[in-house]
Amino acid sequence: MNLQTKQKIVKLSIYILLIFLSLVAIVPFIWMLSASFKLNKDVFTYPVTWIPETVRWQNYADIWDKIPLFTFIKNTAKLTIIITLLQLFTSSLAAYAFAKLEFKGRDLLFIAYISTIAIPWQVYMIPQYIMVQKFGLVDTHMSLIILQAFSAFGVFLMRQFYISIPRELSESARIDGLGEFGIYSRIMLPLVKPGLATLTIFTFVTIWNDFMGPLIYLNSTSKKTIQLGLRLFVTQFSAEYSLIMAAALVTLIPVLIVFLALQKYFVEGIATSGIKG
Amino acid sequence: MNLRKKRVLRQNLVAYAFILPNFIGLFVFTLLPVLFVFFLSLTKWDSANPIQFVGISNFTRMFSDSTFRISFFNTFYYAVGTVPITLIAALGLALILNTKIRGRNIFRTVFFFPYVASLIAVVVVWNMLFHPDMGPINGLLSAIGVDNPPRWGASTKAAMPTVILFSVWRYMGYYMIMYLAALQGIPRDLYEAGNLDGTTPFQRFRYITLPMLTPTTFFVGIMLTIQCFKVFDIIYAMTNGGPGRATNVLVYYIYNQAFSEFDFGYASAMSVVLFAIVLIITLVQFRSERKWVSYM
Fold it and tell me: Does residue B22 contact residue A155 with C-beta atoms inside 8 Å?
């Protein structure tokens, strides 16, 4: 066998392997999509019929009556937007100071921030809950907002983006008489837009998909988020397979849209947080 | 006060003002609770009745608590299964996607999506796909002649491997991205030098790629291990810790003790144990990193 055919065979087997692995990654979603359009009794027929004989759109209408799905989506959207905005604001401010300003105790404080990232939330969720309970905020959206709006990770991530901006830019603005807040808001923020986009998508996905936080803090159905709602649906209508699949798919759509639109920033963000600073 | 001192003071105050909004929140809702958990671990408290100081009895109680022992063991079992398989899968995918192939970005998106998708939604599909009696996976296995296909999440023996399999499927794309970034950071001329010396692709992988990737491997290793030790929602959604106690893990048990039994003291003591484990893992991996990692 000559070298060229050998290379071709290697290449072909790589493609076959890749396609097989992609199928493993994606088939559950295709199965979900297919099942969501089936009659309930047809969900588990074997061999799997990937394209249902009659496409049942009715499933997507029924799910809204079974549980207050719209309320769940509204609650989640509200939390996601407020928390993301607060995170962007507080993180970009603090990160600017850590990256571009000289002050007493900077390095020590930054080490404290980094260590906070390393401590899992599960370690201190109990005292945190007791605090929130004493504030009388259990079963309010405010509880999740105040707990998730201040992130050490956000500061770390934004700092990575500020650092790459040359010092001369802020120096010359300072000579022109611009105050620190002016430099931050008019010069720096526009330059770290990729960082802001990265933090947005990270926070969006985290808050939208958050399960344990809402599970602990939200009790009344009218306040629950989409993840709790889907879970509720699954436990209440455990045999309505096609409806469950339709509801599950609905919860995935916002994440899918944001992910496909901002994927580039997601990938950059993971790469950035993976580089050790 | 002279002018210079005044300026430095002003500079400090401006910087603190920038940090303050974030710092207040972080201090009150993260730092204080972290300190408070140590105190709570020495008490018996349901947050309604008066708090009782009980010394280290919460910690000694763990030794005689069989559910704690089981959940402690299960957490290690989960980590020992998940970490290496995810690491190898992520590295493998990254190596393949780092070659010149068509549709790289599409493949990357496909592998990454399970990580972004909402957990509850994907767990629900998995539980249907892996349903022991009706699921298409066992349908397929029977069709190709497997007599007694595994009962997956429904059997004591197979439940944890099923959870591990799911975790690998969900996490591998995320760590693949980290490896991809690291692979792109390896200088090209290293390989060119390797090419000139007439090396095989395997030798180049063994003596160039792998050593250059060790910092990433350590970082990914730490992140993954910690992620495994704090696993909760996968367990809650997939198996509820069962069947029996087969997939009861540390955080799941902590959650139950705290928010079902309202035994905040005991739950806090277990949180301190979790903290200690995470700390030890981080320190050990950083220490051995100094020994093994070549930064070149």
Answer: yes
Question: And the tokens for A231?
Answer: 């879970």
State whether residue B230 sits within 8 Å of chain A by CB: yes
Cα A125 from Cα A203, distance rounded (Å): 19
DSSP string, B177-193: HHHHHHHHTS-HHHHHH
Q: What percent of chain B has pLDDT over 90?
A: 35
Closest residue in B to A99 (Cα) is B15
3-state helix, strand, coil in chain B (%, to 5): 75, 0, 25
Interval B117-127: pLDDT, tens: 889 989 988 98
Q: Which of residues 132-151 of A touch B (CB under 8 A)?
A: 133, 146-147, 149-151
Spatial CB neighbours of A37, under 8 Å, sequence gap ≥ 6? A52, A55, A56, A57, A59, A242, A246
Query: Which pLDDT tens digit goes with each residue over A112-138?
Result: 888 888 888 999 999 999 999 989 999
Residues in A 38-57 with any Cβ partner in B closer than 8 A: 43-44, 46-48
Provide mean pLDDT across the span B127-147: 83
Strand partners, B43: B53
Q: A98 touching B, CB under 8 A?
A: yes
Q: Are B266 and B58 in contact (CB under 8 A)?
A: yes
Measured between alpha carbons, how far is A44 from B138 in angstroms, rounded to an integer? 11
